[in-house]
């Protein structure tokens, strides 16, 4: 029995990670509060409902399942929300992670894979962001994730907690088998909102800002297919189990797409145009986030072969038309 504790396993990325873990011969044990996750998405292993702020529950879960490692996805991750309510982010993300890390150390579970973000880099115009770029987050979400990265380093020094930190760029797409997919309530992410607008499930998409210093005036992001992203996590887990030491990896492809380019691509895939209006900037958004992604490819052997915009939108569109979860 090789259990891996997956916090946030009922969420978008966590549920895809559970599927990949199962395929790799592990048993994913989902711990999720269901505040943003969906129980329907827990399909690949046991489920425990609870909050990371509940330390007694964490101790019980570690005792019950004796996981060989933790994959820590559970977090609040919305830029707009964190600007309005930073306390929510510091409590939920930072205090929750502290509880989890302390419980893992107490249980002797010392391999830890952590979902961090390119939002820890902040707004650094015209820079390709690699793992050595200084981190200057401009919102509470990025700041909360950077704090957890620091926490992991301190716990390694004191308690030998080995960790792989993945700094995600923008994640899109869905499981091509349609077992799990992206479903947020409320939805704030570009690709699902765009698909909703295309088939009339909601009003026109608002492009947040057309006056950025980019070729077409809209923000540029580096999009990764969720299945490629979780592949990297399996490689990261093996990296830890092979005793290769703690390491930070960016997960992006190095290709940047503006909001308008994403809209154009979705027209090409769906053959339908996206109704949109142009609106003001969204507070907290960076102009351009593009990954220097060579390290994960060179050292982990990561191959993000599904991460073309066409493939991501094709898989997201298929899920969009067929998949959903109920609470
Ligand atoms: N975006 C937009 N309209 C929307 C949602 C997002 O123009 O309704 C833009 C947003 O400003 C950013 C990009 O799309 O430049 C990706 O945003 P998303 O919320 O998907 O991810 P984030 O970059 O915040 O992690």
TrEMBL record:
BP terms from Gene Ontology: galactose catabolic process via UDP-galactose, Leloir pathway
Catalytic reaction equation(s): UDP-alpha-D-glucose = UDP-alpha-D-galactose
InterPro entries found in the cross-reference section: Epimerase_deHydtase, NAD(P)-bd_dom_sf, UDP_G4E
GO molecular function: UDP-glucose 4-epimerase activity
Uppermost EC category: isomerase
Top-rank taxon: Bacteria
Pathway: Carbohydrate metabolism; galactose metabolism
Alphabetical list of Gene3D superfamilies matching this protein: NAD(P)-binding Rossmann-like Domain, UDP-galactose 4-epimerase, domain 1
The enzyme's E.C. designation: 5.1.3.2
Protein keywords: Carbohydrate metabolism, Isomerase, NAD
Residue ranges occupied by any NAD-dependent epimerase/dehydratase domain in the UniProt entry: 4-252
Co-factor(s): NAD(+)
UniProt xrefs under Pfam families: Epimerase
Family designation: Belongs to the NAD(P)-dependent epimerase/dehydratase family.
The protein's assembly and partners: Homodimer.
Name of this chain's protein: UDP-glucose 4-epimerase
């Amino acid at each position: 029995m090789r259990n891996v504790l997956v916090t946030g396993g009922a969420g978008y990325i966590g549920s895809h990670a559970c599927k990949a873990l199962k395929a790799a011969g592990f048993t994913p044990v989902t711990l999720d509060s269901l505040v943003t996750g969906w129980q329907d998405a827990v399909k690949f292993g046991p489920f425990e409902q609870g909050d990371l702020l509940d330390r007694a529950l964490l101790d019980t879960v570690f005792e019950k399942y004796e996981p060989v490692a933790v994959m820590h996805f559970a977090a609040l991750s919305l830029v707009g929300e964190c600007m309005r309510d930073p306390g929510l982010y510091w409590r939920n993300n930072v205090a929750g992670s502290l509880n989890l890390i302390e419980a893992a150390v107490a249980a002797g579970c010392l391999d830890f894979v952590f979902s961090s973000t390119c939002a820890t880099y902040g707004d650094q115009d015209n820079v390709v962001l690699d793992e050595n770029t200084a981190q200057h987050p401009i919102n509470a979400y990025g700041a909360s994730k950077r704090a957890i990265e620091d926490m992991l380093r301190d716990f390694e020094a004191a308690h030998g907690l080995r960790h792989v930190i993945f700094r995600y760029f923008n994640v899109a797409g869905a499981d091509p088998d349609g077992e799990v997919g992206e479903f947020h309530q409320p939805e704030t992410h570009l690709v699902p909102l765009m698909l909703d607008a295309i088939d009339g499930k909601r009003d026109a998409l608002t492009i947040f800002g057309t006056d950025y210093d980019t070729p077409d005036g809209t923000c540029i992001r580096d999009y990764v297919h969720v299945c490629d992203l979780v592949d990297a996590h399996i490689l990261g887990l093996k990296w830890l189990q092979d005793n290769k030491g703690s390491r930070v990896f960016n997960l992006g492809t190095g290709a940047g797409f503006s909001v308008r380019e994403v809209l154009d691509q979705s027209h090409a895939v769906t053959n339908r145009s996206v109704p949109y209006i142009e609106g003001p900037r969204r507070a907290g958004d960076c102009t351009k986030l593009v990954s220097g992604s060579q390290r994960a490819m060179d050292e982990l052997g990561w191959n993000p072969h599904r991460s073309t915009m066409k493939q991501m939108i094709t898989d997201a569109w298929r899920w969009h038309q067929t998949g959903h979860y109920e609470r």
